[in-house]
Hints:
Blueprint: H1 2-9, H2 11-15, H3 21-30, H4 44-59, H5 66-77, H6 79-95, H7 98-105, E1 110-119, E2 130-133, E3 136-139, E4 145-151, E5 153-160, E6 167-173, E7 180-185, E8 190-198, E9 209-212, E10 215-218, E11 224-229, E12 235-241, E13 248-253, E14 263-266, E15 271-276, E16 283-288, E17 295-298, E18 310-314, E19 319-326, E20 329-336, E21 341-347, E22 352-360, E23 363-370, E24 381-387, E25 392-398, E26 401-405, E27 408-414, E28 418-420, E29 423-432, E30 443-449, E31 457-463, E32 471-472, E33 475-480, E34 483-489, E35 496-502, E36 505-508, H8 514-518, E37 525-526, E38 532-539, E39 542-549, E40 556-562, E41 564-570, E42 574-579, E43 583-588, E44 596-600, E45 614-615
Parallel strand pairs: 1-7, 8-14
Antiparallel strand pairs: 1-4, 2-3, 2-5, 5-6, 8-11, 9-10, 9-12, 12-13, 15-16, 16-17, 18-19, 18-45, 19-20, 20-21, 22-23, 23-24, 24-25, 26-27, 27-29, 28-29, 29-30, 29-32, 30-31, 33-34, 34-35, 35-36, 37-38, 38-39, 39-40, 41-42, 42-43, 43-44
Amino acid sequence: MADELKSLLGDNELDTAPDSTDTTESTQQAVPTPDNDAARSVEPSHEKQWKDNATDIQESNPGKFPKLKKWARGYWAKKKWTLPLTLFLLLALLLGIPLTRYPILGTIMKKDTSITVMDSVTDQPVTDASITVAGSSFKTDNHGRVMARLKVGKHDVTITKKYYKTYKSSVFVGIMKTPSVSVKAVATGRQVPLMVTDYITGRALENAVITASGSSAKTDKQGKATLVLAAKGTDTKATITRDGYNDNPVNILITSRDVTTNRFTITPTGKVYFLSNLSGKIDVVKTDLDGKNRKTVLTGTGSEDTNSTALLASRNWKYLALLSKRDGKQGVYLINTTDDSSTNIDGGNASASFTLVGWSGDTFVYQIQRANVSNWQPGAQTLKSYDAPSGKLFTLDQSQAEGTGTADYGYTNFSTVSLLNGEVVYTKNWYSSSFPDHMAGKSSSLISVHPDSTSKKTIKDFAVPAGVTYGYSVNISQYEPYGLYVQVPNNNDGTNTYYGYENGTVALKNDVTDDTWNKVYPTYLVSPTGKQSFWSDVRDNKNTLFVGNAEGANGKQIATLSGYTPYGWYSDNYLLVTKGGSELYVMPTDGSKAPSKLTDYYKPQLTYRGYGGGYGGI
């Protein structure tokens, strides 16, 4: 019987029968050891007791609701499946009830909701209206719209703006569709149509903000906006603002009609610097791009030379280089346009004279000629540069010399210096007294160096031909923004050989003749980003203006038979031109609008043909 019971319940269940003092004792007495033959026979009363114990073990003493407990045991035994299923069914039940569906989904689901406010009468966007929804506040853009990321469900909305009735309603954010709500706002004042354009280009300006009497509006892509103002009164003061433009205080006529009085222009930010002798001295002056807010930056001393004063601006207009004779001594000065501070770069020696070369990025290149250095002494001529951001001065090269005196000398001199895309390129030529001969064995050289004095190299040497006595001059001419012609005399017969230098390479140019060399090439003014160039060409005795790519090609004609000449760029969006030798103008790069006059100015006598790395040189 015991074996049958074990097979029914298992050894473990049998060993763990409920504890009972009497039963345990009787069991201990009735069950012999395995070696006892009496184990083969158990009294019937004990057999019944074992069966009762086994039943108790199987049912675990269920007590009340045995079926429920049995179900619970089975449910828990399969909890990996039953618990998630139960949670899913409970969630499905809650989501099926609208009252609980959206609060639950709102914890995990949000939708971009568009709310647009339009004027109920004009059907124009109501800009800068305040919208409060779901505890957050927004301002409508120039389309009268806000995009709010809201939880699904219902939300209260409040819309307010001065001279409009307060609007209160609700918005329902559904699950499937992207919500879009349009509201008609009712004005309590007068709707005044306005328009804003760029002063230089005449183009409509988007996102300009007009503010008056506590109310504001933003212009759309057509530069238009409707500003609601109090109906009383005939006009009111306003201010127009926009990123990248100067604030413009204006006067608005309060009318619902579209009138020219309420069409305004605003001017791009920035200052143009130039020379002016309006005071009787040659001053450095600046104005806005519409000629307003004129201010003297550096006052002249009265000793300025009208023939030798010059002002060159860097391409980004951060720095200016001024060549001026101040207090009787000529020098080169830096003006930092960030704060209009001035620094003496070089000068103060009455025996030194200066020649400006131009800007290469933010580094200015110039030459010094020292009258107190004799022909047989080195250093009479020096090529230098000044790095404006760091204030460092570099010596790029200086003249060589040899000999014993006024009748016995040989020396080098620099020819025209050109700035080509981060290079300072020039020739260094030998000259000599008649006797003894200092030219034998010498060479003139085409040289390149970086503006910070690094990477200096001789591109090509040109040996002085036999029989040349007094000097051998190899010259360069810039025929395009980044290209040079090199003229090399053959000997004393008056003929020349020509080379071309571009992108670090020099090559013989058999197709270049003396006529090619003698041609007057345009000065290509390169834009601040280096992506465009600006130049003029004479047609029927009048300047025709062109804008092309960085290499001076693909020119687009922007002004025909005009009286304007190039002055420079202001950003890549505007051009500066001169007229009549004393008037400065600004115009759009595509020539879509006639130039607008900035100011009268003092045009220097010095010009820098071929130099296009900065502005004000031609």
